[in-house]
Specification:
Layout: H1 2-21, H2 26-53, H3 58-78, H4 97-111, H5 120-141, H6 146-169, H7 177-198, H8 207-222
Helix pairs in contact: 1-5, 1-6, 2-5, 2-7, 2-8, 3-4, 3-7, 4-6
């Protein structure tokens, strides 16, 4: 049940935080993104990779690369919202369908391995909170109606639980669980490493960011 509840709560938390506090300090957001990127990368390496590649098949590497390429393709439409970039014109008032569809595909796929890999839920939650904060912040700066913003975030919050639900109840997918997880590994590797590089200025980590990244890695290891 927590696999369904926690991803939704992560989006609600991000939305509520922006609605109440209206944060404007970009430095703190970069630190939060750096933590989420390091945590997601560590969860992927410490948990997903060993579980999938313990029964190695040559095709798994292909699926990892396919996941990386798929994420790059999705970012062509989302403009990098998965790792903290949202490009919405301030005068835009229409529902951002391309952004929604690309983020939804990403969110559904990340939900597929959750009920087989319990620790993954923590990585997804830590990843979703800053993304929800960034999405809400940019939506508030646009002319998109409040009803459209709420609809976007509500539907977005449901996508990861939907992926987990489909994985549990579509029994024919069970035979391809490792392949799907390998695909998600590729997606996570691309997103997390991109976050880590883009959260640094001039690709140099200052001491605070370095400590944040080390902390996230250590926490992920001991979970």
């Amino acid at each position: 049940m927590m696999h369904y509840i926690l991803p939704i709560l992560a989006v609600v938390l991000g939305f509520t935080f922006v609605t109440i506090f209206r944060p404007s300090e970009k430095k703190h957001m970069k630190l939060l993104l750096a933590f989420s990127g390091a945590f997601l990368l560590a969860i992927t390496i410490f948990n997903l990779l060993p579980n999938v590649f313990s029964n190695y098949k040559g095709s798994y590497g292909i699926f990892v690369m396919a996941g990386i390429l798929l994420q790059i393709f999705l970012e062509f439409f989302s403009k990098g919202a998965e790792h903290g970039h949202v490009h919405i014109h301030k005068d835009n008032s229409s529902f951002p369908w391309l952004l929604f569809i690309s983020l939804s595909i990403h969110a559904i796929l990340e939900g597929f391995p959750m009920h087989h890999h319990d620790h993954l839920i923590y990585g997804i939650v830590v990843h979703k909170i800053p993304i929800a904060i960034i999405l809400t912040t940019f939506f508030y700066k646009s002319k998109i109606p409040r009803a459209s913003i709420l609809a976007f975030l509500c539907l977005f919050a449901l996508m990861t639980p939907l992926g987990s639900f489909l994985s549990e109840h579509l029994t024919f997918l069970e035979a391809y669980q490792n392949e799907i997880t390998a695909l998600v590994i590729g997606i996570f590797l691309h997103i997390s490493t991109t976050i880590l590089f883009e959260s640094s200025e001039g690709h140099k980590f200052n001491l605070t960011k370095l400590l944040v990244i080390i902390s996230a890695t250590v926490i992920a290891y001991f979970i």
